[in-house]
Specification:
The protein is an alpha/beta fold. The protein has one domain: Rossmann fold, CATH 3.40.50. About 40% of the residues lie in helices and about 20% in strands. Strands 4-3-2-1-5-6-7 form a 7-stranded parallel beta sheet, sandwiched between helices. The protein is globular and about 40 Å long. The two termini are about 25 Å apart.
């Protein structure tokens, strides 16, 4: 908890936001996928970051469970236009999220807002939706973490990158959540815009 509290700057500008992308249906994710996703969430909270997910079930929800286990903050970005539509039409949960943003843009539109709201995207066990979020993050030149585990998605995404003929130095891979987060945060901080504060007579002053 100390790392969480110490990471919060006065104005919140330096708060790091990590999107976890993954499958809502997890039958193909393999042994221990639940615990691996929860540990990823715990590590996001330990390193003082905010979790952002698609406000869905499965792998992203498990990550949110891990975040909340140790008092972290979890944000959901829903495809629905309202809480009622979120629950009754999309059949999505409200639990383990401190805040849900209702976009009304369906899954494909939601994916763009979800990835752009984050400083980096981590892809765990997924399906076609995770590939969609991966490619949006790739095109937006965001740092991306490929979280490897007893699932095929890590290998599939690595193969996509290898065959894309577009080198990307902002992609890190690994099966250790702590190391993966540390590597991503290093990449995020390279592109962070300096914070500015209001000064009495001179307007804005950069704060490094």
């Amino acid at each position: 908890m100390d790392s969480i509290l110490n990471s919060h700057e006065k104005h919140g500008h330096n708060q790091i936001k990590i999107c976890v992308s993954g499958a809502a249906e997890t039958g193909h994710c393999g042994i221990d996928a639940l615990e691996k996703a929860k540990e990823l969430g715990r590590e996001i909270a330990r390193q003082g970051a905010v979790l952002i997910t698609g406000a869905t079930t499965g792998f992203p929800l498990w990550a949110a469970m891990g975040v909340k286990e140790i008092g972290g903050f979890s944000v959901g970005v829903s495809p629905a236009a309202s809480e009622r539509e979120h629950v009754e039409v999309y059949k999505l949960p409200l639990d383990y999220m401190d805040l849900i943003i209702y976009t009304g843009f369906g899954y494909s539109g939601r994916d763009i807002l979800l990835t752009r709201a984050a400083d980096a995207v981590i892809c765990g066990c997924g399906r076609i939706g995770t590939i969609h979020e991966f490619t949006i993050a790739f095109e937006d030149e965001k740092p991306i973490g490929i979280f490897e585990g007893p699932w095929e998605m890590g290998t599939q995404l690595t193969e996509i990158v290898q065959k894309s003929h577009r080198p990307n130095e902002k992609i890190v891979t690994g099966n250790d959540p702590k190391k993966l987060l540390e590597d991503l945060i290093t990449l995020i901080k390279k592109d962070k815009v300096p914070e500015y504060k209001i000064t009495g007579s001179s307007g804005m002053e950069s704060v490094q």
